[in-house]
TrEMBL record:
InterPro entries: HATPase_C_sf, SACS/Nov_dom, Sacsin_chaperone_reg, Ubiquitin-like_dom, Ubiquitin-like_domsf. Residues 60-105 form the Ubiquitin-like domain. This is Ubiquitin-like domain-containing protein. SUPFAM superfamilies: ATPase domain of HSP90 chaperone/DNA topoisomerase II/histidine kinase, Ubiquitin-like. It comes from Hirundo rustica rustica. GO terms for molecular function: Hsp70 protein binding. PANTHER family: SACSIN.
């Protein structure tokens, strides 16, 4: 007990102390003997000198007992910059001279408290700012520092800094005895408590550090992130009297300074040296037995191989805090820790096991929650070796060893979470990359590292998900910021990155968030440090992680957590989602990444960005896969990347070196160079794509133009008629042009393809392709081409076998469609279709096997003999056909047109004469001359119905040998026919001798038809007297024989009276 007494009080009542240790008096030892014994025992131990000063605070130094006061002053000067001449050290109310030995100040223990006074500005009186009372100081910490799961994280961090591998938290409901305590005031701290255990042992520095509440040990050692700094003091949210058991010592802290004497803020016991007092205060130390492997044997042996803290719950408000704790609040503390417990171990190097336990009042203990970090068997050495390399790099940096490169290590780690409320353990797997910047990479960063005692370390972790989880947890992943441990959940800890980022960041005072260079802390060194860390180290660490993920995807294809290109692509940040402080990583990260083979091609290869053509084609489109397959088979490297990768490429690629994409222009270029020998379906897919940008002039030479016959021909700029390819439409359907499939664009095309080809066919000055849209003129051209192909001759009437494939004849519906188009588009003029066999001689029926068609001719040889109208006289139909005409009984209903009457005439003489006009007059006359008398009579009678005639018609009628001569043939029953031309017409009232011959043809006009025609043609008609004049002239010219003259004269005499009357008329 004497070795733990602090000599700051003005005096010590040795009698009281002796009476509290009766065993010493029973042994007959006096006070002086005890003092001498203790001095011998401690002569080789370092003395701990604690110096108190209103401005400098509390400073503790370890010095040899032989050291003098001047040595302590030198230590104060070295640390606080206060010259020894300005220092005045006081002990127990008296000022010490420089020569006094420390050993002379020691009594029964090796710890001495001195009070430091320094001269004012002019050498007299006390001067300087003061620190608030300890309780007030801690209360301020608690106001700023969060309550909740972060308390547990701080304790884990302390364990990590100590090199511990295991941390256990325990809520203990046990009520311990209150009889043998240091004082009766300690009774209230013997009940329920919260414990924190780790398997590391306190060092002397730790024992010092935990007493220095305003100064974290990391100031001296950058490798210690938070050793008992402000973070540790957050335990005062829970307790008023935290205690520590580690190695051979137990310490208790009392910030209220009421339990261990005036101005005493704690007490410490050594298991061996204070064993007697420990054994007497059994209830006081009972809470340190029976937990975490600590037993009575532990106390007997004088060493506990680990560390645990005991935090008795604050059961009633105190001056320090009004926050009262009970079991429910401890479990809530556990629950708040559980929220992100699966990532607590992610970036820790030492701690691999954290568990939460509850011990009930009856002593039964249960596991509430546990999280462990481990490696796969195949990679069991990877993480330890990586951490060793990382440690070496950190040491090198701290020692100032120059290196302008970054040291990165990557390892796989499994995090397993066991929860009492969940049957099966939850396992997550991670790929973690930790990096240490080299000294020399950034001068400003190095300077800040020395000033702040920081190290430029960064860790990046990606979640590895099984294939089943790919679309779940990974898709919803939200990256957070860590400072070795996860920062408290909330908006400030979110990064907007698809990975977790840990770093040696400068944090705000309450350690809840990272400092950033905002207006109020633009020049803050820690904020500047964080900015530099983000710009210089994070991108390189991030790049390393992605490259390592790619490497492992290739080499660990059969691992438990296989990587995929999609998963790796999701590692790339989306610049639109990144929180503002992290945006500076974007450009350097992307630039660094794109120097490597980080693009996954459709041929399953990781390639460089310069090699690839990026596809932004819609996967839902039918042609996409065909286009990509074609390019790939043509030797192009194709990649389909998500939006975040495409954005990264665009962001970092210079204008001079444009990103190569899969575009219609690229495909057209490849097609010109390599052609295409694939299927028709693939060609159509390629055609659809190369048309999509509307640059139709670049189609020339591409063998992708689909014809109706199934062939593909090259696009051409030729305007030659034989090269034209016509585009059919609803107005001009393909079925109109049978046999011309090689001249027509395929009509089995998608609407969008057809629309594009129609655009390509439109003329902008000069057509850019051989495609042409059908119009009336082109329709007529093609119809004539069809007909000339099927009926190549010149016959007026042709044979049509509708739908007969052998002859390639069009169907009945075809002719109907033709007439429909003639009606619509050629209502004013049908002359372009002259000589085309378009008029059926009979009515059309779908099942007909043979139909005769009549060609359009002008004048038309077609006469329509419609039963409902005027009918042709007998023999006329035969006559018309013999002179080259065609007689129709009926006109099919499909043959409707405003100009049809120009080509299909009614059965009128004028129409027949029009037909006759087409023949040469000689041929016509010969043909008519060959007619039998019945036909001649019928024709004469038909022509006689004319009411008027033009000169040409009159000339034709005059030439026709259809008029009967007066004279008889040898066969008196067969009349002799002649033409009006060169003949005389006997008036129907005239009388002449019977059987009389004339030297000129005399036409008998005894029939009405002859009379009408003679009158129409104004042919002179001979009367009886006129005939006698011809006879007299013929008699004079000896035309008649003697007998004929005698007969003539006899007839004259007999008809003299009649003749006289005619002469008189």
């Amino acid at each position: 007990m004497f070795q733990t007494i602090e000599y700051q009080a003005d005096y010590i009542n040795w009698d009281v102390l002796a009476m509290r240790d009766g065993s010493l008096l029973r042994d007959g030892l006096g006070i002086e003997d005890i003092r001498q014994t203790m001095e011998i025992k401690d002569k080789n131990r370092l003395a701990r000198v604690t110096v108190l000063h209103d401005c400098l605070g509390c400073r503790t130094f370890e010095v040899p007992p032989s050291a003098a006061v001047r040595d302590v002053k030198r230590r104060i000067d070295a640390e606080a910059g206060l010259p020894p001449a300005q220092q005045r050290l006081w002990h127990r109310g008296r000022e010490l001279s420089d020569d006094i030995k420390i050993v002379d100040l020691q009594k029964s223990q090796n710890q001495i408290f001195l009070e430091l006074q320094s001269k004012g500005l002019k050498g007299g009186g006390r001067f300087g700012q003061t620190t608030p009372p300890l309780v007030d100081f801690l209360k301020d910490i608690l106001r700023r520092y969060p309550e909740g799961g972060q308390i547990l994280k701080e304790l884990i961090q302390n364990a990590e800094d100590a090199g511990a591998t295991e941390v256990r938290f325990l809520y203990d409901e046990t009520q311990y005895g209150t009889e043998t305590l240091w004082s009766k005031d300690m009774a209230q701290y013997q009940g329920p408590a919260f414990y924190a255990y780790n398997d590391a042992i306190f060092t002397p520095e730790d024992w010092h550090g935990i007493q220095e509440i305003a100064r974290s040990r990391k100031k001296d050692d950058p490798l210690k992130v938070g050793r008992f700094g402000i973070g540790f003091n957050s335990v005062y949210h829970i307790t008023d009297v935290p205690s520590i058991f580690s190695g051979d010592q137990i310490g208790m802290l009392d910030p209220h300074q009421t339990l261990f004497g005036p101005h005493e803020s704690g007490q410490c016991w050594n298991l061996k040296e204070d064993s007697k007092e420990i054994n007497e205060l059994t209830d006081q130390f009972a809470p340190f037995i029976g937990v975490f492997g600590s037993t009575k044997e532990t106390f007997k042996n004088g060493n506990f191989p680990g560390t645990f803290f005991r935090f008795p719950l604050r059961l009633q408000p105190s001056q320090l805090s009004s926050n009262v704790y009970d079991k429910q609040k401890v479990l809530e503390l556990f629950e708040s820790f559980r929220a992100d417990a699966d990532t607590v171990l992610l970036f820790l190097k030492s701690v691999q096991d954290v568990s939460l336990h509850v011990r009930e009042a009856d002593g039964t203990e249960r596991l509430v929650f546990r999280v462990t970090a481990s490696e796969n068997k195949a990679l069991k050495h990877e993480r330890p070796n990586s951490i060793k390399i990382l440690g070496t790099a950190i040491n090198q940096y701290c020692k100032g060893v120059p290196s302008n490169s970054i040291t990165c290590v990557t390892y796989h780690v499994n995090i397993v979470v066991e929860d009492e409320s969940v049957k099966d353990a939850q396992k997550t797997s991670w790929l973690v990359c930790n990096c240490v910047g080299g000294r020399g990479m950034c001068t400003e960063l190095d300077c800040l590292a020395d000033e702040l005692k920081f190290v430029p370390t960064i860790g990046i972790a990606m979640s590895l998900a099984t294939n089943e989880e790919e679309n779940g947890a990974v898709a919803d992943f939200s990256g957070r910021a860590f400072c070795f441990l996860p920062l408290p959940p909330g908006e400030e800890s979110k990064t907007g990155l698809p990975v977790h980022v840990s770093g040696f960041f400068g944090l705000t005072d309450n350690r809840r968030s990272i400092k950033w260079r905002e207006l109020d802390q633009w020049r803050d060194p820690a904020a500047l440090w964080n900015d530099l860390l983000v710009v210089n180290i994070v991108p390189k660490a991030y790049t390393t992680l992605i490259l390592e993920a790619i490497k492992r995807m290739e080499t660990e294809k059969n691992s438990d957590f296989p990587l995929s290109p999609e998963r790796i692509y999701r590692l790339w940040p989306d610049e639109n989602k990144i929180r503002v402080p992290w945006k500076p990583i974007v450009v350097p990260l992307f630039k660094d990444l794109l120097q490597h083979t980080v693009i996954y091609s459709v041929s399953n290869q990781w390639i460089n960005v310069e090699q690839v053509h990026f596809s932004e084609m819609d996967e839902r489109l039918e042609y996409t896969q065909s286009v990509l397959n074609y390019l790939q088979n043509s030797g192009k490297q194709i990649a389909k990347v998500p939006a975040n990768i495409a954005s990264a490429v665009h962001l970092t690629t210079s204008a001079a070196k444009a990103v190569k994409k899969v575009t219609p222009a690229v495909v057209r270029q490849v097609l010109r160079k390599s052609g295409h020998s694939g299927s028709a379906e693939e060609k159509l897919h390629l055609l659809e794509f190369v048309l999509s940008d509307g640059v139709y002039s670049e189609l020339i030479g591409l063998e992708l133009l689909p014809l109706q016959n199934g062939n593909f021909i090259p696009f051409s700029s030729s305007v030659s008629e034989q090269d034209v390819v016509y585009i059919t439409s609803e107005e001009y359907p393909r079925s109109l042009f049978p046999g011309l499939e090689g001249r027509l664009l395929s009509d089995d095309l998608k609407p969008e393809v057809l629309a594009a080809l129609k655009e390509a066919a439109k003329s902008r000055g000069r057509p850019c392709t051989q495609l042409q849209l059908l119009n009336p003129e082109r329709f007529a051209r093609l119809i004539k081409e069809v007909m000339n192909s099927v009926w190549p001759g010149r016959d007026v009437v042709v044979q049509w076998y509708p739908g007969l494939e052998e002859k390639k004849h069009p169907s009945v519906s075809w002719l109907k469609m033709v007439w429909k188009n003639l009606y619509i588009h050629f209502s004013d003029d049908l002359s372009v279709f002259d000589e085309m066999p378009l008029i059926p001689k009979t009515l059309l029926e779908e099942n007909q096997t043979l139909v005769e068609l009549v060609r359009f001719r002008n004048p038309s040889p077609i006469i329509l003999e419609d039963e409902s109208e005027t009918q042709l006289p007998e023999y006329l139909a035969d006559i018309i056909q013999k002179i080259g005409g065609v007689v129709l009984k009926k006109l099919d209903i499909s043959v409707q047109h405003p100009l049809i009457k120009k080509y299909v005439h009614p059965p009128l003489p004028s129409a027949v004469l029009q037909i006759m006009e087409k023949m040469s007059l000689q041929k016509l006359c010969n043909q008519v001359a060959s007619f039998p008398p019945t036909h001649k009579d019928a024709l004469r009678a038909f022509l006689a119905s004319l009411t008027d005639a033009n000169e040409k018609e009159k000339r034709i009628i005059q030439e026709l040998l259809i008029f009967k001569k007066i004279e008889k043939s040898s066969d008196e029953s067969v009349p002799v026919f002649t033409g009006l031309k060169g003949s005389k017409v006997l008036h129907h009232t005239a009388k002449i001798p019977p059987g009389l011959r004339f030297s000129v043809p005399i036409i008998d006009s005894s029939d009405e038809a002859t009379i009408r025609l003679a009158n129409l043609l104004k042919i002179e008609q001979l009367k009886s007297t006129d005939c006698l004049k011809f006879v007299i002239e013929d008699i004079r010219s000896d035309f008649y024989s003697y007998d004929e003259i005698a007969q003539i004269m006899q007839w004259v005499l007999e008809n003299l009276t009649f003749l006289k009357m005619r002469i008189q008329m």
